[in-house]
Design a protein that fits this description.
The protein has 9 helices and 6 strands. By secondary structure, the protein is of the alpha/beta class. The longest helix has 16 residues. The strands form 2 sheets. A 4-stranded parallel beta sheet has the order 3-2-5-6. A two-stranded antiparallel ribbon has the order 1-4. The relative contact order is 0.16. The two termini are 33 Å apart. Helix 7 links the parallel strand 5 and strand 6. It is found in: Cytoplasm.
């Protein structure tokens, strides 16, 4: 795995890439991609960072694993390639946006349009073996992405962290709440949403209200 990542991030994460755990992770990922079909494609593993430079980040959304179906994952959490049917969690995200701020349900599930506005769409685990959910967990990715969250918390101010579901909420301890804003809710997955834990959270309008108070450009969701 050749770490090709936006220079603004490399400056902050360069030391992480040299740590023993990351070298082991690199070898694991390289072997997996050689021996199995894995997602996203190798050039998209760090897409979340490439589409949202460090100094432009305003909002952080934390997912867990990339999608493990064909042609779905594009390196941004909850996002799928253009032309791919929207997975259930993404459907519920778009439904909440429509209810919350009136934006019509979009044709494309590709969230690069969010990332380019400063939304870091960060999966805790950046790779996965095809058709095998969680197959690359506990191999080092979580240590890396936890470091990303801590570095963002330390070296920036006024970020809006959207923590959806139990897994993401556990990341709150990595964030300095005196410098940043944390919004939590249930996960947009059908299991959580159908229990009334997702719909009505208004995270998209609330995020823009927070950004407005800081005189930052709003996100066009």
């Amino acid at each position: 795995m050749n770490v090709s990542i936006d220079p603004s991030w490399k400056k902050h994460l360069g030391a992480e890439f040299e740590k023993p755990y990351f070298k082991l992770l690199t070898q694991f990922v390289r072997n997996e991609y050689q021996q199995h079909k894995c997602y996203p494609k190798g050039t998209a593993i760090f897409s979340a960072f490439d589409h949202c430079p460090f100094h432009e980040a305003k909002v952080v959304i934390i997912g867990q694993d990339p999608y493990h179906g064909p042609n779905q994952a594009n390196g941004l959490c909850f996002s799928v390639q253009d032309g791919i049917p929207h997975p259930p969690s993404l459907v519920n995200i778009f439904k909440e946006i429509k209810t919350d701020i009136g934006i019509p349900y979009p044709e494309s599930g590709n969230l690069e349009r969010w990332a380019s506005q400063g939304v870091l769409l960060l999966n805790a685990t950046l790779t996965v073996r095809a058709h095998t959910a969680g197959s690359h967990q506990k191999k080092g990715w979580e240590q890396f992405t936890d470091s990303v969250i801590q570095i963002l918390s330390k070296h920036t101010e006024g970020l809006v962290f959207l923590l959806w579901g139990g897994f993401a909420k556990k990341k709150a301890g990595l964030i300095d709440a005196s410098k940043h804003h944390i919004l939590t809710s249930g996960h947009p997955s059908p299991l959580s949403a159908n229990r009334g834990l997702w719909f009505g959270n208004q995270h998209f309008s609330k995020t823009n209200q927070i950004l407005s108070k800081m005189d930052k450009p709003l996100i066009s969701w």
